[in-house]
Amino acid sequence: MEFRHLGRSGLVISEIAYGNWLTHGSQIEEDAAVACVHAALDEGITTFDTADVYAGTRAEEVLGRALKGQRREGLEIFTKVYWPTGPGKNDRGLSRKHIMESVEGSLRRLQTDYIDLYQAHRFDYETPLEETLRAFDDLVRQGKVLYVGVSEWRAEEIKRALKIADEMGLDRIVSNQPQYSMLWRVIEEEVVPLCEREGIGQIVWSPLAQGVLTGKYLPGQPPPAGSRATDQAGGANFIKGLLTDEILTRVQNLRPIAQELGLTMAQLAIAWVLQNPNVSAAIIGATRPEQVRDNVKAAGVKLEADVLKRIDEVLGPVIVRDPAKTVSPPRRP
What we know:
alpha/beta, TIM Barrel, two-stranded antiparallel sheet, 10 strands, 14% strand, globular, disordered C terminus
């Protein structure tokens, strides 16, 4: 495993992180989830990402049990707050009330005394940003949170948060968690340049484009049985926008590149996002331990400029850079 600093912070994380968005507590049984976490630990992954909303808080519980007994100082545990976790009007958003109550729930479910990185899962347009940032700062001062970050914030929202934090003397954002892959490159135009200047690292989700970049979905054929595209309770709605014959055909044309490099399609896709120097980690998920063991082989892979150019030429017009001009794939909660 290779390691990187999270932005310009002092926190060092594994460049491949393990995430449990669509798996723990919903898609797979707990024994399989625990086996995947233990496989990640065996392969040198120290960074684990979750959120209170995943599987209705059950994902945090499963991760907490899976990591129980591990040396806490050797782990980086990330979670998030924003989406509804209860029926009340204050069981959502980034108000001080919801943040302060949510962090206690996350700490309890994760069975830990502190969270390494606490992230605002989306931007809250109904709560003053000053209120949110002050609450995050208070959690840092209390020692319940070590670092704060955001997820899927636009460049102008990150910029506003940095300005307020500097003016009020609050803890600054050190990370952003966006969707990023060979197919979905929206952050490159505005978010990445801003974050590079401000010392904010990207912890990217869906580097495999919901599994499309593994090459297992073939043009003109139904999705494989048991794949995310057939899981109506989980990932089917998130992947259907990517399952066009044009996208799937171009993805298949990446296969010779991967073979020449001695990589699987998945390893090529994960290695690709890690070539971006602003990326601190790529999040992988898994339903089986062997998927973890396969994907971690992307760590430390160097892709030369000519390879990156060939990838761009193969994918061509299916690359999404501006969602305002292109039909975008569905986004996760």
